[in-house]
Every structure is written in structure tokens, then in C-alpha cells.
Amino acid sequence: MKLSVPGRVTPAAIITAVTLLTTGAISGAAPAPTIAAPTAAAAAPDIPVANVKGHLAQLQSIATANGGNRAHGRTGYKASVDYVKAKLDAAGFTTVLQQFTSSGRTGYNLIADWPGGDTGHVVMAGSHLDSVTAGPGINDNGSGSAAVLETALAVSRAQYQPTRHLRFAWWGAEELGMVGSKYYVNSLSSANRAKISDYLNFDMIGSPNPGYFVYDDDPTIEKTFKDYFAGLGIATEPETEGDGRSDHSPFKNVGIPVGGLFSGADYIKTAAQAAKWGGTSGQAFDRCYHASCDTSSNINDTALNRNADALAYAVWGLSS
Ligand code: TRP
Ligand code: ZN
């Protein structure tokens, strides 16, 4: 959904202006005002939240058909990977399924590269695709997975040709201790690690009683996200729960600049936070965290929409 950003000219506004000029609807409109040529750096598109929710509905169906979860080593995880991979393959990505073993079961990371750009400077965005065994994992972490997927599909729709190379990732077995993302980082040569300019992580971005947390890490990445929310007039707080809580951690540990977004898990929203963000103070950001009720109804659409748009804004901005 389009949220108005101050100072941004929407395509619709440009079309309206051009229509008025070409139809002569503006009286005495000579000399015609100059319409600025498109700038070299393409603006990030709006990410349709309906599409993101469509992916969440599919992940919910996959869980329902596979014993109620999408956990590592279970059929619902592999079905989730197959769903995401098919979308990316059809959109022109080069995909790789990376296999590993954890707790005696096969796990998978899905890596998708967008052809083009400087492969010596890679901007990467990722999210964990596995749930816990207790439930379908729609906020944790269908939300991040669906938003990263829809951003990748938006790259394809725009046929975006950024200066830097783009790579998207869906991690397996995060819930067992970031097993998939650790495996990926360990599998990279030091030369290939050095080529990753940024790793952006999205783990829980549609919490039903949301907060707007920006990882307090690489300053450039953090500023990019904060600028986006400032443009919407939304206050953010630094994400300070610690660096060991999600898949950005293995990247950070080898010196790769990291950042990300988070809308809250089992911590309680304070009165001050409810005053600036709305929602319910004295309640968890996500009362269904790691529970069977983390279903399609456990999503705040406004938070999902804003965070998906911020994700695309950062991917475009950092890679242009
Ligand atoms: N990674 C956690 C999970 O998947 C979620 C989480 C809790 C989190 N606190 C966090 C993610 C802080 C990022 C930052 O269960
Ligand atoms: Zn989790």
C-alpha cells in the first residue's frame, strides 16, 4: 500500500500533471513547466501489502497441510522452500538450494541472486523461513520471509539494474540456533565474505501489537531505515535485545555490516511505547510468539506494510 512520503512525487501525480498539460486543461499554460527527467537512481517501489499477505496465506496453508508447522526437518519446511523457490525461478532469479544437516535432519537455505550489478559489492537481504514445531510461524517468520520474497519479485517487475549486486536469502533452522545462516557464512571463502557490503535481516516484522525497532548496528544501514520511517512520521527505537537473536549475527561476527527491522516478540509494550505507536501497553508485542496461535490472524497489516516498504527502500537505496 502506498504511504505518502513527504517530498516524493508519485507516478500518479506525474501522470496527472502530464495529462493536464497534453489535454490543455491548464488554461494559459504556456510556457509549459519543465518536468524533471527521471534521476539515475530509481526510486524504490511501493511493496503491495496484499501480495505479502498472499504469501502468508500460502505459508499458512502449507503449515495446515503439514501437521501445523513449517519447522526444520519437517515436510512443512521443505514445502515452504519449494513455494518461495518456484516464485523466484519464474521471476528470473538464479537460485541455489544449500543443504545441511542439523539434529539428524536435512535442512535447506535458499539463496537467490539477481543477475547483474557489481558482484564485488553485494547487498544481501534475508529472513528465516523455518517455524518452531509449536505452530505455523506466520509472524515468526513468515512475515520477514514474505516481505523479502515480495521485494525480490518487485526487483524483477521493475527489471531493476542496480550498481551493486543483489542477493536474497531464506534461512533454515534459525530456531535451532541460527544453524542455516551460520552454515552459509562458514561456507563462504574469506574473499567472498569480503564482497558482501551489507546484510539486512528481517525476523518478525508484522507483530500484532507492533513496535518499530531498527537494529542499532551499521550506521549507514540504520540511517537508511530511520530516514524511511522519519519520512512517514513514525518514531523508531533501536533494537537492543542483543546481537545473538537472529541470522544477522553470523554475518556481524565476521565483520560484515548488518542491519534490520523488528516489530517485537515476547517483551511487553510499555505505556510510552503505546503512546507513540498505538496498540496495547502491558501486553507483549506478540502474544503468540512461538505458540500455536502464530497464524494468519497474528499479523498487524499496517506494521507489515510499513516494514515491507522500508525493506524495499533500503534494498534500492543501498544498491543504487
Ligand atoms: N529470532 C527470534 C526467533 O526467531 C525472534 C527474536 C526475538 C528477535 N528477539 C529478537 C529477532 C530480536 C531479532 C531481534 O524466535
Ligand atoms: Zn522464532
Question: How would you characterize this protein structure?
Answer:
The protein has helices at 11-22, 49-65, 75-90, 138-158, 179-187, 190-194, 219-232, 248-253, 271-277, 301-319; strands spanning 94-102, 105-114, 118-128, 164-171, 196-202, 213-215, 237-239, 258-262. The protein is built from ten helices and eight strands. The two termini are 23 Å apart. An eight-stranded mixed beta sheet has the order 1-2-4-3-5-8-6-7, sandwiched between helices. With 320 residues, the protein is α/β, with parallel strands linked by helices. The protein binds tryptophan and zinc ion.
Which characteristics define this entry?
320 residues; alpha/beta; Aminopeptidase; eight-stranded mixed β-sheet; 8 strands; globular; disordered N terminus; binds tryptophan; binds zinc ion
What's a concise summary of this model?
With 320 residues, the chain is α/β, with parallel strands linked by helices. The protein is 39% helix and 18% strand.
Task: Note the main sheet.
Answer: 8 strands, mixed
- Tell me the fraction of residues in β-strands, as a range: 15-25%
CATH architecture: 3-Layer(aba) Sandwich
Could you give the order of strands across the largest sheet?
1-2-4-3-5-8-6-7
Q: Give the helix level as a range of percent.
A: 25-40%
State the distance separating the first and last CA atoms.
23 Å
List ligands, each type once.
tryptophan, zinc ion
CATH homologous superfamily grouping? Zn peptidases
Rg from Cα: 20 Å
The CATH class designation is: Alpha Beta
User: Stretches where pLDDT falls below 50 for ≥5 residues?
Assistant: 2-40
Number of extended strands: 8
What structural class do the secondary elements suggest? alpha/beta
Number of helices: 10
